[in-house]
Structures are given as structure tokens and as C-alpha cells.
Amino acid sequence: MVKEQVKLEKKSAIILGATGLTGGFLLQKLLQDDRYDKIRIFSRTQIGFSHPKLEEHVGNLFKLESFKIHFLADEVYCCIGTTKAKTPDTEMYKDIDFGIPVSAAKMCRSNGIKTFLVISAMGANSKSGVAYNRLKGEMEEAVLNFNIHKIHILQPSLIDGNRKEKRTGEWIAKKFMKLFNFVLVGPLEKFRSIHPEVIADTMVWLANNNYDKVRIQSDEIKNICYKHSNNTF
Length: 233
Prior knowledge:
Number of strands: 7
Structural class: alpha/beta
CATH architecture: 3-Layer(aba) Sandwich
Oligomer: single chain
CATH topology: Rossmann fold
CATH superfamily: NAD(P)-binding Rossmann-like Domain
Mean pLDDT: 87
Number of domains: 1
Order of helices and strands: EHEEEHEHEHHEH
Helix content: 25-40%
């Protein structure tokens, strides 16, 4: 008797921030992942290559609602972020780090997308005296208010890796962290810098598996990646 093979339905995903450091690794992973047959990216500039799975939408992410009819997928990955040095204008800075993730979560809710993963930052706290941490904390609280079925907020420490744009202060911090990573052990391990591919690996695993925690700190991001991935960083 020949057993009938069950054909698994493939999934689709949306990436916001695919032209960035972590988003770039994430895009490559999803394009190579046989569980997905469509990857939609939304960005201000073209990615610069084509792929049979890739569907690209270029436009103003500050008006993300204008993409609503195309904002359809099983999962949404939000890898959007900037710094004060790169975006000194306060309103634009808030529009990027707060506005875009919150708009994405809102459209997940209205379009029935049940899985949302977003990169925040270590120390995110809406009550923080540090503006960066406070804004990230406010973003986290805002996206959680949409009550998306499956949501994970990743809180990495300093993200290591080579960016396309120059961020002098961040570059200095990365060099400093590489010198001191080895002494950050035990409870201090979460302060070690983290590779963007580790974050990308963990995001994909979280989207495809059950995991109880919503907010996931940097050391836990690494632990998930190292436990479930064959990659070494």
C-alpha cells in the first residue's frame, strides 16, 4: 500500500528593515528556508537583487498604512532602528524607532497576521531617564497593546557587525566591547555584544516554534540560537 504524501502548505513573511544589518541576514535566511515561498520586504530603497521568492515594495515607511493591501503574510519581522547620531531630528527619530514598529503591529492586528517579532534594545523601559531606552520601552508597550496572538520582543545588547553606513560612536563601542566581552560572565553575560546573524537565527526559530516568553534579552537570544542552530559565530 502506497502512503499518500502530505504536502505541507508553505508560509509567507514580511520583513521591515531588510536593507539593514540584522534584516539583511534575516532576509537571506528566509529566502533559503524551504518552509517559506514568499518574502515581502518594505523599505525606502531597493534591495539590489532579485529572487523568485522575493516581493519588494519601495516607499515611505512613515506611511506604512499605504501598503495595507500588500501587507499580508503569516509572520512579520520588524528590524527597524536608528540612532540619535544618524537621525538627530527628534521627530524623525521617534517616527522610525516608535512609529514604524507600532504601525506594523497595528496592521498585523487589522490584517489578521498572528505572528509579530520586533527588535527592541537591552534596557528598554518606558520609565527610563535615558531617552533611547525610554522610547524603546514605549514602543514595546504600544505594540503589546494590539494583543497579537504570537509576539516576541528581542532585546539585544550592542549589535556587532559591519554596517553600510558609518556610525563612529557605535564603532568605538564595538571595539571596546570586543576587548571586554570575555570578562562579562554569569549575570553580566547579557551585556556582551551580539552578532546580527544570531538575532536573525533566533527570530526565525521563535516564529516557527512555541516559546512562552515575550521579552527576550540578549543572553537568552544567544542561548536559543546556539541550542537550535548549527551555525557558530
